[in-house]
C-alpha cells in the first residue's frame, strides 16, 4: 500500500468467494490448512452454512486490496445442563502478519462474543497458548482451566 492511503476494514461472515481472497493462506498462518481444491472448499462451506447461526466464521476484509486480513470462528454448543443452556466455543482466530497490532484480532473476538450473546449463550470459551493469554485477557476473558487434548 502506498503512503497516505487509508486502510478500510470490513467485518462480516465468511463468503464462498473468500477462497480467492487469501482465506486459506491466512489459516495457514495458524496451522496446517492443507491444499484444498475448490470443490473441497465449496463442499465444506455449504456444510458449515447449513448449521446456520450455530457455526459462524467471521472475516475482516481489507477493502482496498480485497484481501482477507483476519478471521475467527465460533460454534454454539447446546447443553442439557443449565436448563438447556448454550455455550460458545471460539476457534481459529488469526490475523495476517501484515495487519497485526491494529486491533483486528480483538474486533474478531468481540464480533464472535457478541454473536454468542445474541444467541443466548451463558459463556464463551476457548483454548490458547500461554503466548496468547495476554491477548485474550485484553478481550475480556480470564484463565479458568487447563486444556487436555489427544490427536487422533
Ligand atoms: C482460540 C484460538 O484460535 S488461539 C489462536 C490464536 N492465534 C494465533 O496464535 C495466530 C497468530 N497470532 C495472531 O494471529 C495474532 O497475533 C493474534 C490473533 C493473537 C492477535 O491479533 P492482533 O490483531 O495482532 O491483536 P490486537 O491488535 O487485536 O491486540 C489487542 C490487544 O491485545 C494485545 N496483544 C496482542 N497480542 C498479544 C499477546 N500475544 N500477548 C499479550 N497481549 C497481546 C495488544 O497489544 C492489544 O492491546 P491494547 O488493546 O492495549 O492495545
TrEMBL record:
Membrane topology field: Peripheral membrane protein
Main localization, broad class: endoplasmic reticulum
GO terms, biological process: N-acetylglucosamine metabolic process; UDP-N-acetylglucosamine biosynthetic process
E.C. no: 2.3.1.4
Highest taxon, organism lineage: Eukaryota
Subunit and interaction comment: Homodimer.
Family recorded in the similarity comment: Belongs to the acetyltransferase family. GNA1 subfamily.
Protein name, UniProt field: Glucosamine 6-phosphate N-acetyltransferase
Amino acid at each position: 500500500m502506498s503512503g497516505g492511503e487509508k486502510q478500510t476494514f470490513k467485518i462480516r461472515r465468511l463468503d464462498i468467494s473468500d477462497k480467492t481472497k487469501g482465506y486459506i493462506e491466512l489459516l495457514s498462518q495458524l496451522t496446517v490448512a492443507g491444499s484444498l481444491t475448490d470443490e473441497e472448499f465449496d463442499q465444506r462451506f455449504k456444510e458449515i452454512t447449513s448449521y446456520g447461526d450455530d457455526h459462524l466464521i467471521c472475516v475482516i476484509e481489507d477493502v482496498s486490496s480485497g484481501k482477507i486480513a483476519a478471521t475467527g470462528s465460533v460454534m454454539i454448543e447446546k447443553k442439557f445442563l443449565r436448563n438447556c443452556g448454550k455455550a460458545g466455543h471460539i476457534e481459529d482466530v488469526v490475523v495476517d502478519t501484515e495487519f497485526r497490532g491494529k486491533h483486528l484480532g480483538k474486533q474478531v473476538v468481540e464480533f464472535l462474543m457478541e454473536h454468542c450473546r445474541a444467541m443466548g449463550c451463558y459463556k464463551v470459551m476457548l483454548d490458547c497458548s500461554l503466548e496468547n493469554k495476554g491477548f485474550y485477557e485484553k478481550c475480556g476473558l480470564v484463565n479458568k482451566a487447563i486444556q487436555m487434548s489427544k490427536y487422533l
